[in-house]
Specification:
The protein is α+β, with helices and mostly antiparallel strands. It is built from eight helices and five strands. The relative contact order is 0.19.
Length: about 220
């Protein structure tokens, strides 16, 4: 996979937003801190792998298990035991940030025809290589085989450009406003499925314009 935009070693100042806490990426919540203690290893790469595989496999995608509670924050996923891709990306970001590893959020536009929707995954900073990789913790199922890799990328949904799908190249320090809005306004996963954002809105695009990093190859 080609590296993202940064120079060989990005400055601590540029990476600072990618280790910060927020309402959705609640890195300092006691449950997230406990999770971080569980997955932290002496080498960053081992921490990344274990955290990723735990989020991917231990916490199923809400729509795969036909449940109704909506998780928004990282701690919500730990409390409910599940979340959709947006919430699971918040959890992986929070636990890795709690371990001192810079982690961002990336998005794809999926679907096609009359129905499209955004999908969230993570960008993780490889400090020793000075580059970002994408990891997709959505959760595997028949037809979905996302994996941890620092070389060849294995995301849940490879893009089908002929259907109007696309990768957004920006690496965000915080979730898109549209995705947070959908999670906050939905009382059930059924409601959430009806109001998933189909594309970036104006607020999302303004946030994307200020992104410090991006993947040049997308």
């Amino acid at each position: 996979m080609s590296p993202g935009t940064p120079p060989p070693a990005a400055s601590d100042e540029r990476l600072a937003p990618f280790v910060a806490a927020s309402a959705a990426i609640d890195r300092d919540h006691p449950a997230v801190q406990l999770f971080a203690t569980e997955v932290r290893r002496s080498r960053d790469i081992d921490t990344m792998r274990l955290a990723y595989e735990t989020v991917r496999d231990r916490y199923p995608h809400s729509m795969d298990i036909d449940t109704q509670a909506v998780s928004m924050s990282a701690s919500d996923v730990l409390r409910h035991g599940h979340g959709i891709c947006f919430a699971k990306s918040h959890l992986l970001a929070a636990v890795l940030r709690a371990c001192g590893i810079a982690t961002g959020l990336c998005y794809q536009k999926l679907g096609g025809g009359e129905r499209s929707y955004l999908h969230a995954l993570n960008a993780v900073w490889l400090r020793d290589q000075g580059r970002w990789i994408r990891l997709d913790a959505r959760g595997n199922k028949p037809g979905v085989d996302a994996r941890f890799s620092v070389g060849t990328e294995y995301v849940a949904f490879p893009i089908q450009a002929d259907r109007g799908q696309r990768d957004f190249a920006e690496i965000h320090a915080q979730p898109l406003p549209s995705t947070l809005g959908a999670l906050r306004q939905s009382r059930t996963v059924e409601e959430l499925a009806r109001c998933l954002p189909g594309d970036m809105n104006a607020a999302d695009r303004r946030q994307a314009e200020t992104a410090s990093f991006r993947f040049d190859h997308l």
